[in-house]
Amino acid sequence: MIPGFSTRRPFSQLTEQQILALAIGAEEEDGRIYATYAEALRKDYPNSAAVFDAMTAEENLHRTRLIEQYRKRFGETIPVVRREDIAGFYRRKPVWLIENLGLDRIRREAALMEKQAANFYLLAAERSTSADIRQLLGDLAAEEANHVRSAHSLEEKHLSGEARSEEEKTAHLEFVLTYVQPGLAGLMDGSVSTLAPVFAAAFATHSSHETFLVGLAASIGAGISMGLTEALADDGVLTGRGSPLKRGVVCGMMTAIGGLGHALPYLIPDFWTATIVAMVIVALELWAIAWIQNRYMDTPFLRAALQIVVGGALVFAAGILIGNA
């Protein structure tokens, strides 16, 4: 953590010295990530590995140029300023979560990394008062933008299907970041977190009406909470994740929908009929989440299904046990 920082510092409050230190650390980490990607792809995709080798070398060159500029302006001691210290700053996923999921996932992660880095350098350049630093950051922004095109080119060279235009790829990436990711997070939270209270109320009261009220309250409350959390967590400027308002609305709505899915059946007066319908809907919700993870997040379907179904089943069982206690 930045010395003296008790909370995550807004990017707008960073000094030029801290911005350069942050950039140096980010380039070091990105270089290590690209080197790991290169080794993971070298056996089956040697051409792609060569692209990542070149990107690794470029990141190291960027780091060297940043250190030279830092030494010129601020001396030899570089403070540790990490991504997690900065509010709204992009974070890298652990490499071990990505490298075994195939070239397509690695390519998309690399394109996202470079897009976020280019956004960072553009904003950092705008805030710089030193001509030398402003020029360096602007040059790095342009070079990172070129890396985005390099990452996109991997799909055209090595993946089946017709090549998509760069604009289509960018639009798809923005769609996933702005709508799919927050929507999926909301659907997962709404579907799973409300299972226990809904079914605990159902088996405690054996009343469709009372169960529906509990489910309605839990769903709306979770939707408001998740929506606000998503909107306030990231302004989207540095991460490229789009409007915080859009993400918050999507996340909140999907959270509420996830909970209402198995609460609405309790509008049926007959308790057991309502409960059976609710159970069927729960199963459909969990499989839908697994499908979305597989379709948009490149998570193997069986892995996603195992995680979601097992987790949902445990929460569902906990609700029934509590309700019958």
Describe this structure in words.
With 325 residues, the protein is mainly α. It folds into 2 domains: 9-158, Ferritin, core subunit, four-helix bundle (Ferritin, Up-down Bundle), CATH 1.20.1260.10; 172-324, no CATH class. The protein has 10 helices and 2 strands, in the order βααβαααααααα. The protein has helices at 16-41, 46-74, 103-127, 131-158, 166-193, 195-205, 208-233, 244-260, 271-296, 301-324; strands spanning 9-10, 86-87. Strands 1-2 form a two-stranded parallel ribbon. α1 (16-41) runs antiparallel to α2 (46-74), α3 (103-127) packs antiparallel against α4 (131-158) and α5 runs parallel beside α10. It starts with 8 loop residues before the first strand and ends with a helix.
